[in-house]
Amino acid sequence: MTNGRSPRLAVLIDADNTSARVAEGLFLEIAKLGEASVRRIYGDFADARMRGWAEALPRHAIVPQQNFAYTTGKNSADIALVIDAMDLLHSGRFDGFCLVSSDSDFTRLAARVREQGLDAFGFGQRKTPEAFRQACKRFFFTENLMPAPPEGDPAAARKESPAAALALLTTAVEEIEEDDGWVALAALGNQLQKIAPDFDSRTYGSPKLSTLIEKTGRFELDRAAKTIRLRLRPA
Asked: Are 42 and 69 in contact (CB under 8 A)?
């Protein structure tokens, strides 16, 4: 909150690198971060591949910025997005930016937004280069924002195992634990975001951090106090 209001966010979407299937989950997630005051999408909407976005625009009040692809290999949409971002950045009207793309070309833009003292939130596929993910305050994998696939669907098996998060969870706990080893869940969540901007319990098939912690089997969880600590190993 800023002066009692929700943070004003500028949402800029690279249509060439983002599936329209993520639109619903995308704006639900952004609503947790603040108010999507500006909603713009960039691409060549004369291309048949953009039909999905054309149908999603009115449902989410997204303003399309048409950029014809006159030359193969030259992305005028990326340039238009960056120009608009800089204009909006210098307007002083926003508290943060949501950059929706899996393209590493926006790494410097995310860094520039943060240098200005604003928040940069990234949204892209798991294949997004690490440089872009790390340049953001937080980075959300768009796969986590789509409806959960039914049991038996191959997509359901693409989640990481909870064990894959164990090293990161352990590091975060050890960095902030009290003398008795206990850590508040809220503090742990904040520490994880500092260490790994792209951390999300949903990546490991868990809707909440507490659920992921339980699945690892390596922590004691006090639900009443909302604290955890590493489970002591037998002597």
From this structure: no
